Amino acid sequence: MPARRGAACAEYLPEISKDAKQELLNECESIWKQMEECQSKLQLLGTETLLKSEAKHSLLTMQAKALSAECSEWQQSPEITSANPEVLLALGMEELQKVKNNLEMMLSTAQLKNKRLEEDLKREQQWYDEQQKMLNTLNGIEEETKTQAKELSKTSFNGRLLYEVQTQALKLKMYKEDILNALGDFLSQHFPLPEKGRNAKNSKISSEQPDVELVTLQELLEILINKLMSTPHEPYVAIKDSFWPPYIELLLRYGIAMRHPEDPNRIRLEAFYV
Hints:
Blueprint: H1 2-11, H2 18-48, H3 52-75, H4 85-190, H5 200-208, H6 217-230, E1 237-238, H7 245-253, E2 257-259, E3 266-269
Antiparallel strand pairs: 1-3, 2-3
């Protein structure tokens, strides 16, 4: 066993001289002998205090501990207490080589990890760019939708306004027709046209004047109204034979119509809106 232990120690120092290696082997064998003696004393000390019933179990337990300790020693690097400069230099070189190997392994691992992180960062950046493009597209759609909504609201408002104006115009037209119909019924009832069979006093005048078809008071008013609305700068209408004189006198007397200041044969409708 000491020879194997010394050979194992020598494997860690391949670059030292033969004398230094032999010196180191002798020191390792001496230390190993001391360890074996201590181990034997511990085993004997333990067996003396044990009872016969527990001797076998305790012995197996101590052997297992001893084997575990020996295995641990084999796994660890031997501690060399030699003061030989060549041995110390070889040990230092070995430790430096181990540190170098560990650092190279750590560097390789760090580089691999950095490479993976760069790939992850690249994928995250690509995902972020895609999300940003999508967000810009959605913002554009939102702005376009708002603009369309405003235009639609404006168009809808104009459409409603036009519909309301048309409805009011239709109502006014219907109201005008109702007013004209009511006025026509009132005028035809209270201001009818003269009958063709007149009294004896007016028979001579009727025989001398040509027989013309007289217009009703409603028609006379419509003629005056249409003239005033179509040509407000020239609202006068010439008095015709179809205008019954009592109707004209009625309109003049009650301020509904007025004569031309220079031509009494022309009349106009009074401007009530002024």
